[in-house]
Design a protein that fits this description.
The protein has helices spanning about 15-20, 30-40, 60-85, 100-115, 120-130, 135-145, 150-160, 180-190, 195-200, 205, 215-225, 230-245, 250-255, 255-270, 275-290, 305-320; strands at about 5, 290-295, 295-300, 325. With about 350 residues, it is mainly α. Helix 2 (about 30-40) packs across helix 16, helix 3 (about 60-85) runs antiparallel to helix 4 and helix 8 packs across helix 9. The chain is globular and about 55 Å long.
Length: about 350
C-alpha cells in the first residue's frame, strides 16, 4: 500500500509545536517513536488521557514528557541498526540489544515523569523499531534473537515501571527472578495482557486483517483511508478495536465481565448515526472517567492498553512512510463514519 498523508487539522493547535520539540531528527527512528506517542496522546479517546482530560496521577504533560524521554534511546537503536553490516557481508555487529533499549527507555521515562506513563507503548513499539521492516516477519526475526540477557533487562524495566493491576501469578511473577526466556513469560501472560499477546504471537494481533478480530494497524489504515482526519481516525480505530477486543488493563483492574461490557458499549456506539454518536461518545467517556469502586476506592475505567496499541499502530504507519499534513484542502466534519460495525 502506498503511503498517504495524515491530516491533523482536527488535533490540538499546539501539536506542531509538540512535534517540533521532539529531541531527535525528524524522520529518524527516535522521532517516529516519540511522534507516535505524541499523536496518540493528542487524540481524544474515551477513558484515556488527552490534552483536555486526565487523571489525578497522570496528565497529558506526563505523556509528552515521557515521549520526549524515549526519543534518545530509540535514536541510539536506529544508529546501531544502521551500523550493522548488510546481509551476507562481513564486519562487526552493532553492540545493541532490544533489552537494553527497553530498559534505557523505561529508565528515562520514569525519571522524567515519576510515573508509568508509557511502559506499554515502549513494549509495544520496541520490537517494531528494531525490525528491518515494521512487519510481522520483521518482528519475528527480532524476537527470535532474544536471549537470557535481554530477558533480565526487560524484566528489570517492567519492574521499574510498576505496572498496575497485575496481581500475583504462579509463574514468572514480577516479584520473582527474571525468566530465562522473555517470550515464555509473555506466553504465560498473553491471556491477561494484550501487549504480552503481541510478543507471544510475533505481533500478528497488531496486523490482523480478519473482520472479526481486526488489528490496530488495519483499523487505523481503514479509518484514514475513509477520509477522516487523524484525530477522528484514531478515535474510530480505538472504539472499533475496543469493540472487538476487551481491554486487558480494564480486565485486570476491574474484572473480565466489566471489560466485556465496555466492549459491548463501544460496539453499540458504532451503530449510531453521526447525529447521535458524538454525544453518545462523550457520555461513554464520562462513564469511564467516573469509574467504579474497586478495592475500596473509586477507580476510573481506563482502556489504557487499547491506547498503547494505537501508539504502536501509528508508529507502523509513520515508519512505512505515511506523512503528517497540517490541513486538508477539503476539511471533513470531525465525526466518525456511519458504517456499521463489522
Amino acid at each position: 500500500m502506498a503511503p498517504h498523508k495524515l491530516h491533523i487539522s482536527d488535533l490540538p493547535a499546539s501539536l506542531p509545536a509538540w512535534l517540533a520539540a521532539i529531541p531527535a531528527d525528524q524522520g529518524s527512528l527516535g522521532w517516529f517513536v516519540a511522534a507516535a506517542s505524541v499523536l496518540e496522546s493528542a487524540a481524544a479517546k474515551p477513558g484515556n488521557v488527552h490534552p483536555a482530560a486526565g487523571f489525578a496521577d497522570l496528565r497529558h504533560d506526563d505523556f509528552l514528557t515521557a515521549a520526549y524521554a524515549i526519543a534518545e534511546p530509540f535514536q541510539t537503536l536506529g544508529a546501531s541498526i544502521a551500523e550493522q553490516p548488510a546481509h551476507g557481508e562481513s564486519g562487526p555487529m552493532a553492540s545493541f540489544t532490544l533489552g537494553s533499549v527497553i530498559l534505557t527507555a523505561v529508565e528515562a521515562a520514569t525519571a522524567a515523569t515519576r510515573s508509568n506513563a508509557n511502559l506499554g507503548i515502549v513494549l509495544a513499539i520496541a520490537p517494531l523499531a528494531a525490525a528491518v521492516q515494521p512487519s510481522r516477519d520483521g518482528v519475528r526475526e527480532v524476537l527470535a534473537s532474544l536471549d537470557k540477557g535481554d530477558a533480565a533487562l526487560i524484566w528489570r524495566a517492567i519492574r521499574l515501571a510498576k505496572p498496575g493491576g497485575l496481581g500475583r501469578v504462579a509463574d514468572h511473577d514480577l516479584a520473582d527472578p527474571p525468566p530465562p526466556c522473555i517470550l515464555e513469560a509473555m506466553r504465560l501472560a498473553r491471556d491477561r495482557d494484550a501487549i504480552a499477546e503481541l510478543w507471544a504471537d510475533d505481533f500478528r494481533p497488531l496486523f490482523e486483517t480478519h473482520p472479526e478480530r481486526p488489528g490496530m494497524v488495519t483499523l487505523l489504515e481503514q479509518a484514514v483511508l475513509s477520509g477522516l482526519p487523524l484525530g477522528a481516525a484514531i478515535q474510530d480505530a480505538f472504539l472499533r478495536h475496543l469493540a472487538h477486543h476487551p481491554d486487558t488493563l480494564v480486565a485486570r483492574r476491574h474484572g473480565h465481565d466489566i471489560a466485556v461490557d465496555l466492549s459491548q458499549q463501544a460496539a453499540a456506539l458504532l451503530t449510531l448515526p453521526n447525529s447521535q454518536r458524538a454525544d453518545a461518545v462523550d457520555a461513554f467517556d464520562r462513564r469511564l472517567r467516573a469509574g467504579r469502586w474497586s478495592n475500596g476506592q473509586q477507580r476510573p475505567l481506563n482502556p489504557g492498553t487499547t491506547a498503547d496499541l494505537v501508539a504502536a499502530g501509528l508508529f507502523v504507519l509513520l515508519r512505512r512512510g505515511w506523512t503528517l499534513e497540517l490541513s486538508s484542502p477539503n476539511p471533513l466534519p470531525h465525526c466518525l463514519p456511519t458504517a456499521p460495525l463489522t
